[in-house]
Amino acid sequence: MSVRDYLIDIEPLRTSPDFRSIFVARVVSLFGLGMASVALAAQVYDLTESIFQIAVTSMIMSVTVLIGSLWGGVMADRMDRKRLIVYARGAAAFAFAGLAWNALSPDPKVWVIFLCVAWDGLATGVSVTALMAVAPTLVRPDQLPAAGALISLTGEIGSIAAPLLGGVLLALWGPGPVFAFAAVTTAITTFLISRIRPLPPVRDDDPDYLNDPDDQNDHNNRNTVGAEDSGSLLVAFKYAWRNKVVGGLLTLGGVTALFTMPVVVFPAMVDKEFGGGDVMLGVLYTASAVGSVIVSATSGWLTRAARPGRLLLIAAFVGGLSMIGFGLSGNIVVAVVMLAICGGAGTVYEILEYALVQHNTPDRLRGRIVSVITTQDTAGDIVGDAEVALIAKWFSPSGAAVVNGVICAITAVAIAVTVPGLRQATLPKEAWEDEDDDPDNPDAPDAPDAADDRDADAVPHASDGPGEVKGSDGGSAAPAPVSPEVTTVEKARPMGG
User: Across-strand partners of 465?
Assistant: First the structure.
């Protein structure tokens, strides 16, 4: 492989007009959201001088995102997803406008902030779920890892650059103009998304999504499962229970979301173990993002992984080991390296999880399955910090990191052993990649001409179900850090959208 093969694959941007539209909309939105998150925390503290009130704001956002995700997942499987996203982003724009109006008023009210944050959280949960559900209809199945890498990279860069820019603008103008900027960027995002093609859920003529896709002997229910779909979350859970790949990913994701990187112990470790100050604390918070950016920018090899399921499990295991190494480090340099490895492993996991879930979930169930994943991440934010704080109280801050790492590593091994379907999971490749690699093979098809098969209008439609490859034609979206919309790794913050 050449150096170029290791660089991030931008083919989805070249071949999918709809993906480009949503990608640009996402980048614009992330900067507004990241800046608003800084202004929100600063304004709440200025009004209340209470860290607890900032925590309450974050809790309101997390809970409403969770509710919005569950409802949005159900609605994304019932109505046109583009229209649902446009409605949700439009509602979020009004939430930011309300924050701007409140901040610029002579007497800003905290209750208004809570109300706007709750409104934005509901809108964010709906839009994130719908955005992730449309991805397979916007890019070819073999482009899903590349689309996930592009989404991850923009999220990580946004989580680093946007808060920094927000702090500068906050110092110059105050919170009101920053919230107004977020409202404008959200409105621009809404406009860009409104210009893509309609994205209704695909109604399969033969939707065998309640049966195990790997069970080729069960044909009795193939023509009746459509009637069995009541549109509830229970149908999605039933599918996940029977599908080895999706079920394994939900189980592993639930554990890693709860026992995630223990960022809440960073201040205590800097103070008690590393003997540093605010600068050192900032380095710890940045270390994992640096590892994530490096992996995302060099993720070309991920799109060609022969066994993505196995690689995902290895990434989860390495992430657990790196958390153990962080807890046992006792040295700031080693700690930073361990956090960077953890961030990189998390990004590998995120990209492959995104692709595997999307490919192995039928279109008409995708909204609900995605809502479960988003709910896991949000619930991990809510419960995970409390879990880490409790373990740190019993042991020590570094001990909490070790315990979380051990649990994640053991879970990865257990899933690898007990769920062979996930370990052996693969993703579709372009037709000419599935043949003999020998260029002299007379039976191997020639690679299609880029001007023909790679043209966006010529791309076939996306996979409608597990193991069913039909292609696609457009853009991508997704996922969860300044907001749950950034990536699943980055988690929800006090301002979303």
Answer: 468
In the prediction, which pLDDT does 493 show?
Answer: 32
Q: How far is residue 126's CA from residue 70's CA, in Å, rounded to a whole number?
A: 8
pLDDT at residue 179, as a whole number: 94
Instruction: Find, among 204, 222, 202, the residue nearest to 212 by Cα.
Output: 222
Backbone angles phi, psi at 465, to 5 degrees: -170, 170
What would the two tokens of residue 82 be?
Answer: 């583009």
CA-nearest of 346, 329, 348 to 260 is 346
What span, in angstroms and rounded, lies between the C-alpha atoms of 230 and 147? 31
**Residue 77 in contact with residue 364, Cβ under 8 Å?**
yes
Q: Smallest Cα–Cα separation from 92: which of 189, 186, 192, 181?
A: 186
Q: Which residues pair with 468 in a beta bridge?
A: 465
pLDDT at 445: 42
Which is nearest to 185 in space by CA: 27, 35, 28, 40? 28
Q: Give pLDDT, residue 345.
A: 93
pTM above 0.70, yes or no: no
pLDDT < 70 stretches in the chain: 1-5, 135, 202-231, 278, 429-497
What does the alpha-carbon distance between residue 308 and residue 146 come to, in Å, rounded to a whole number? 13
Burial of 149 (0-12, 13-18, 19+ CB in 10 A): buried
